[in-house]
Amino acid sequence: MKKLYISLLTLFITLVSVQLTSAQLIEDFNSGEKRSYAPGSVELSSGTWFMKEALLGNLANDKYNGAQGVRMQVHKDTNERGVIYMLFDKPDGAQDLTFSMANYGTSGGNTLKVQYSTDQGTSWTDLGGELTPTSSLEATTIPVNVEGNIRFKFLHASGTNRLNLDDVIITDYITAEENATIIVRADGTKKESGATASFSPALVGTSRTISLSILNSGTPDLTISSVNVTGQSFSIENLSDSLLAFSESTNLTVTYQPTAAGTDQGTVEIISNASNQPTYTLNLEGEAIVDGDIMTIAEARTLPLGSRVSVTGRVTVANELGGPLYMQDATAGLAVFYPALHENVSIGDSVTVTGPLSVFNPISGSDDSGYLIQIAERPEDTDIIFEIIDTENEKVIPEVITIATLLAGEHEGQLVKLVGVTIAHTGVFQGEKNYNISDGSATTFMRIDSDANIVGATAPEDATDIIGVVGKFNGDYQLLPRFTDDIGIEVKVYPGDEISKDYTLDVATWNIEWFGHGSNGPTDKELQFENVKNVITTMDMDIYALTEISDLNQFNRLVNDLEEYGGFFAGFASQTQNTAFLFKRSVIDSLDSGLITAGMEQNKWANGRYPLEFRFNATINDESREIYAYAIHAKAMDDLTSYNQRLSASGQMKAFLDGNRSSDNVILLGDYNDMITTSMTAGKDSPYKNFDDDVNYTIITKTLEEGGAGSYRSQSMIDHITINAGLAEEYMEGSERVENTKYIGSYLSTTSDHYPVWTRFTYGNMVSNENGIVDTFPTTITLKQNYPNPFNPSTVISYTLNKRADVKLQIFDITGRDVATLVNSAQSEGEKSVTFDASALSSGLYFYRLTTSEGASITKKMMLIK
């Protein structure tokens, strides 16, 4: 890739004897997501790879470049060794294979083996002997010299510890010419003699460079007699080595440093004994710009990072994604990260922005071309100036393109429209997630930002048109839709959201990844601590069941800092991952707590992670309920041994509840480490099928799993809440959800790899009107229970208005989807009634909500039975 920023104090030429071929395959493992060691394929930038006992990781002990790398292990029970291999062929053979490897953390004693296949993976051939990684990430190059289609495999060959692998480069096979033959490339693109190499526009007083590579593809040595440059703004240095054997190459840097605005031209001439082009000529051209002038966005995008630019354009994304803003003119699009701007404009506004060019979230020492170009503050330049132009608002019409065109890279920062797109996902969208999309021309990612109102909405089942801006992260172009209208879907509405949490019992389960550990989980313990406090106070739950509490002092500190809350932890004797409860003192009156060990086998509960019982009185709306809550953290991993542990533990838990708590109110919540509709262990039923099949229990979060939600970063739904019949009537059906942690920056890397999961219960004397739930203006309207209820297929809904008002009467299904609007108009005071015909709907629970312009809101339930 072309470097976006190169700063030169001197003009120089460097000659390095390296391999350079007509093409190469590069895989840096920065794209794609695989967080478990379970066997499976993963889509990467180069193609699809298979991994077993291997994942893509970026923990503190991992050695990698960029965003992440491969981590291989040896399974402690089965002794299966880590392996990754290409599920596709690289055409044009392989001259050399280069990759980087290291031991994970402080471990050692491992070796790595490399194999290749020329028959699509039917058989594999060893490529040399076993290789021994060191404690640091080091590159290794192995000669291959195999032509035709080829693919490679990397195996954990020996040792019992983990190792890392990264940055695989495969160069094309070369057939030697009979005579010395010169091949010249400019920034990787082959240039025949007489061709032109164009420099990106440069600010006067700065420099731009082009790297020329000179390769000998013949068997006799290539002797370079001289290299000359013309044009006063162009320069090189003398050669230090002029003799190249077959397949050897050298890199020559040509520098353009303009002294005045305008265009410049020159040439580079290479004289050698090459049989094909003894006198090779490359034309040079450059354009210079004066700093401070308003320029087109296309011109601004070509300048080095750090350059100050001034551009004018229309806003295509304001603050819908929580920043950055996107703007574009007639030439191109550009991002701007400056909260004072994107928090105060609207889509369609015209703005002028002046500031330094930067990139989004660059990684130290990396190639900045992999990241989104934007105007943003830099350590050396924080001066950003903007003006919102007083002119008529005009929304940009998105350009219709294909995904293949998007991936070509010419539309970064622009608003585009993709037609006939298939989304590889069913169910609800979650924030901070990438979803594969395809349109027949290619496949890429659609990124759902946690700030977008798309979170929680249901993905379309059929092909659809999608509007969004083109973003870039870790070298991958992706589409960023701004809101539900960009995908043609509806905003998710949760029944009861108009009800204040003061009137409900709100319960959450949350796995806080290695809370307080500092190395196995998020590395910044203090940032994790502050983020956890932020999540707890923002969610405002009455009770939290927490798992993976590693630092008990940090937990006690958390309880002390949260003045409204009390809390306690399990105190497992042999565990570094405790369970705990955190509860709001004004609502929860603690009665008793302790570990449940009777009838429980220690080895089935992750070697002693017994269920933590909490008995309490929960008071809401002046009424109390005595409840038994159980926090569990089941055995992880998808191997058969771990599955059988979960299966046995689930059976023991249910036997305990059936035998001891059948007449009580029970909530069983925590990290189940498995799903409900199936199991993460291939070919197995859910280990919690015993609860799911029993009518006395309801796994209320099963609906989230069925809807496509996920509580874990890999999209799996493994954190659950189960209730028994005692709480069935109090449970607010449809209120369960996975928390959208959009208010926490970089949540997955700074806070936890699990999202909180929560639900709501209601009982007692609420602020109400004929049992309808009213949060404000309880005397303005009344809403009666529909009649008949249950009904089939129609029912009558009646209500009374005390004054004239704008009225809206809507019907929602259990998922919160708006299925009908019966009234949406101004109405006079008095008694009203409307008939609801549900002929087109399926049986089930529905909600009807009456709202008025006075701020009143009442919601009730009704049951359709066909």
Please characterize this protein's 3D structure:
It is a single chain. This protein is 9% helix and 41% strand. By secondary structure, the chain is mainly β. The protein has six domains: 24-171, Galactose-binding domain-like (Jelly Rolls); 182-289, Immunoglobulins (Immunoglobulin-like), CATH 2.60.40; 297-389, Nucleic acid-binding proteins (OB fold (Dihydrolipoamide Acetyltransferase, E2P)), CATH 2.40.50.140; 399-486, Nucleic acid-binding proteins (OB fold (Dihydrolipoamide Acetyltransferase, E2P), Beta Barrel), CATH 2.40.50.140; 506-761, Deoxyribonuclease I, Chain A (4-Layer Sandwich); 768-864, Macroglobulin (MG2) domain (Immunoglobulin-like), CATH 2.60.40. Strands 1, 4, 5, 7, 10 and 12 form a six-stranded antiparallel beta sheet that branches. It has a six-stranded antiparallel beta sheet with strand order 2-3-6-11-8-9, with no helix packed on it. Strand 38 and strand 39 form a beta hairpin. 42% of the residues are buried. The model is unreliable at 1-22, 363-367 and 767-779 (pLDDT under 50).
Number of domains: 6
Question: What is the arithmetic mean of pLDDT?
Answer: 89
State the name of the first-level CATH class of the largest domain: Alpha Beta
The name CATH uses for the topology of the largest domain is Deoxyribonuclease I, Chain A
**Major β-sheet profile:** 6 strands, antiparallel
What general form does the structure show? Answer: globular
